[in-house]
Amino acid sequence: MPNLYGLYILFAREVWRFLKVFIQTILTPVITVLLYLLIFSSVISSSREMLPGVNYLTFLIPGLMVMAMLQNSFANSSSSLFQSRLNGNVIFMLLAPISDFELYLAFVGAAVVRGVLVGLGVWLASCFFAMVPLRHPLYALLLVFFCCGSLGSLGLVAAIIADKWDHISAFQNFVIVPFSFLSGVFFSISDLPEFWQQASHYNPFFYLVDGFRYTCLGVSEIPVFTSLWVGAGFFVLSSTWALWLLHRGYNLRS
Amino acid sequence: MDAVSIDDLSKEYGLLKALSEVRLTIAEGSFFALLGPNGAGKSTLINILAGLTRATSGRAAILGCDVRRQWRKARRQLGVVPQELAYDPFFTVREMLTLQSGYFGLGKENRPWLNELIVALDLEDKIDTTMNHLSGGMKRRVLIAQALVHRPPVVILDEPTAGVDVALRAQLWSFIRGLNAKGHTIILTTHYLEEAESMCEKIAILDRGRLVALAPKDELLSRYSWRQLRLQLVPESPVVLPDVLEAKRQAAPQGELLLRLHREHDHIGEVLAALEQAGVKFSDLWIHEPGLTEVYTELTAVENHA
Question: What total number of domains does chain B contain?
Answer without folding.
Answer: 2
